[in-house]
Amino acid sequence: MTFLEIIRSEVTNLPIQYEGSFREMIKERLTSFGNLIDNSDDLSEDVNGLSFTSHIFKRRSKILREGIIKSIDAYYEGDPTKAYTILKKALDEANVTGYLDKENELAPQSNLFRIRLSKENYALTKEELFHIPFHLRSKVNTQRYSIPGLPSLYLANSIYVAWEELKRPGIAEIQATRIVNNDSMMMLDLTTDIFSRNSNLVDNVSYGWQLLYKVMVWPLVAACSVKVQHPNDPFKPEYIIPQLLLQWVNKVNVYGIKYSSTHIDLSKSDHDGIFYNIVIPVRTFHLDKGHCPELLYAFKSTQVLPLQIRQFITISDRLAHQPSIYSWVNPDIQGLELIKGYVQPYSSTIFGIMEHNLKGIDTESFSAENN
Question: Which of 80, 127, 210, 311 measures 20 to 30 Å from 89, CA to CA?
């Protein structure tokens, strides 16, 4: 099989939804993937130079797969430090730093969004929609890329993605803000779109090294893209590798992780667009109150707009000073299929309309008070 054929295989489709034992599932999935790699004699096909490194590629892929499995086993033994050591060793020996797409730039002034739920019809402050402050770190639950007690800033490239991440809350509770980064940021790209939708890919050679990269890091991306089986349980095994990986990211030269939502399966919908989250860990660890000064300096934000208040302000798609909404309100997303068989233009959804309204509100620097 070629790299393209492996990407198109059912084995590599992501995100993963499963029943039963997480540990057994991940072992079986990585083993099935390994069989594709090990039994493929034409991985590189006509990509210049790759035919001479096929055996090295297979060896490194095996190191990464086995490292992930052993890391999870160590975590199940109650030794997270050992689990991290095993994973780091596998990442190093497999030369993952040479394969991972660390050069994925988040361009300056990118429009990112964050929502929070509140039953009050009074707007929260923009600081309240930033990461959980250090003096409230006891409220930081385990999240996919965050251990309890360590705040991280989670952002999405659309209000729709943020809504899915919060498991589709009702309109009355949503308060949203638009956050932009002042400078470019390098992200570790763990998005899964290419594994869910790849019919547009022409062949094995037209994308240079990209397909090799994607196949090489698939075991790591897969281990970070498992839908949580029991959301209300304190321990979520699906978070083991993502949380260990974020510790590793803190030690390499990237700002955060760009990843796909496990709540959106592009292989099962006709959504038209690109959907992703970003997580950025705090970069200050000595403070006991306030927010991370480095992250405060790195971003600006609009005022917070509660959706209920927005509905009271106007029944139009725009605020008084704005032009009517345009079809490319979010260049990443063209349409949503929330009702099976019916794709709605994103600009006509409440998500697109609210993003349009937020783009009509100026961004301001965050307050550094109490930091």
Answer: 210
